[in-house]
Amino acid sequence: MSQGKREVTDSEIVDAFKDIAGPFAAASEVAEYFGHTRQWAHQRLTQLHEQGAVERKKTGGQSVVWWVED
Questions:
Q1: What is the pTM of this model?
Q2: Strands, E, within 8-54: which ranges?
Q3: Which of 11, 37, 61, 65 has the fewest other C-beta atoms within 10 Å?
């Protein structure tokens, strides 16, 4: 756990998509939701994508959007 921040479970991250407005989210939005860095969110979302829990699409440059299939 970095900088005294609480541990966030995979299911909490997936569930956060219900609270984040819109059909998709950027890593920065997930980071803000949990009070962590964008790099932390990107790493966790990448792990969840590799597990099949979230989907992703590059939107240009280094921009990526993430979402959960219903």
A1: 0.88
A2: none
A3: 61
